[in-house]
Amino acid sequence: MDATIEDLSERLIGYKTGEIVSLMVHLGLALGLYRAMAGAGVIAADEVAAKTGTHRRWVLEWLRGQTAAGLVEADGEESFRLPDEVAELMLDERSLQYVAGFFHPPLGGETVQRIAEAFRTGIGMTWEDHGTTGTHFVAGSTGPQHRLLPSEILPLLDDVVAKLEAGGTGIDVGCGSGVAITELAKAFPKASFVGVDPSPTALAEARALVSQAGVSNVELRDGTAEGLKEEDAFDLVMVLDCMHDMTHPQEAMQGIRRSIREDGSWLLKDIRSAGTLAGNLENPLAPLLYGFSVAFCMSSAMSTPDGAGTGTLGFDAATAERMARDAGFTRFRQLDYDADLFNAFYEVRP
Q: What is the pTM (predicted TM-score) of this model?
């Protein structure tokens, strides 16, 4: 290690700074402070407080901190401006630059204790164990990409759009809070869709979203990929950013193989990974992704005694293709889509 003790100290303080600034970002979102400032130009702390029903002194200190963090611009001592670029990052859920979904409350003490205990027992937490904190984190961090599925991703697959437009069938395995399947149901009203997920909390949110969207071509149910009963049933199978979370991914792929039609397509989305530690360390997001793994993804994948424990960066393209072929698929290709910095997209076919 070439870093000096001063360099390491600065790095550690930077990590702690990130923790505290993340909390402040969460508060700004939860209290509507960013929204109150968006498009308003220079605005006084008093006015932000009045618009949000909050206390001016607390708002002023928050604004000063946001200025120090480089997210807000100060105009004098007590007036500030939210740059349009920050407003897009924080408020525009349809933008691929939207990052607000990552800034949910820090993990609570009980969750941290359970993660620490997992180091001793080897048994992690399911996504359901995280409750709404987990579902909101996933929906918020993946929502922008999932809203673009009908317009940007599905057209890259062979014949899928035409099949759905004609009344085809699709299933979202690990549908979570239902953002992706709701978008597809709206885009392809003649098609019918099924969403399965093992989390009651996620399914409740998905049902609420489907109801709010007013779509009637979606069935939601408790389930897993390995538990799929349908055979040769679906033109499109989607597994979006959750294969690496599964306790039994190989068995899940076998369930998908049974359920997909012989001319169907499996859209597989998962975290970009180099397949080696050395390769992954070249990714500046590696500290974040390995941290996510311990807190959420590998934890889920090891939530049973025989869990695979794939981890956030453990499902690289070569691993995905090998496992898919072992499950009986014969065609595997990575889609030419680079707009999503976190994920790679694959088309897998029988």
A: 0.86
* 229 CB-side CA count, 13 A: 3
Q: Are residues 84 and 126 in the same domain?
A: no
CB distance 171 to 259 below 8 Å: yes
Establish if 232 belongs to a structural domain. Answer: yes
What local confidence, expressed as pLDDT, does residue 108 receive? 79
Q: Considering only CA atoms, which of 30, 148, 156 is closest in space to residue 91?
A: 30
The single-letter code of the amino acid at 183 is E
The helix/strand/coil state of 42 is coil
Interacting residues of 13 by C-beta distance below 8 A, sequence separation 6+: none
Amino acid in the structure at residue 268? L
Encode pLDDT of 132-141 as tens digits.
Answer: 989 988 998 8
Mean pLDDT over the full length of the chain:
94
CA distances from 294 to 146, 154, 176, 312 (A): 24, 32, 20, 9
Between helix 56-68 and helix 45-52 the angle, nearest 10°, is: 120
pLDDT at 51 over 90: yes
Domain harbouring 54, CATH code? 1.10.10.10
Residue 106 has pLDDT above 70, yes or no: no
With pLDDT > 70 as the criterion, what percentage of the chain qualifies?
100
Task: Count structural domains, the chain.
Answer: 2
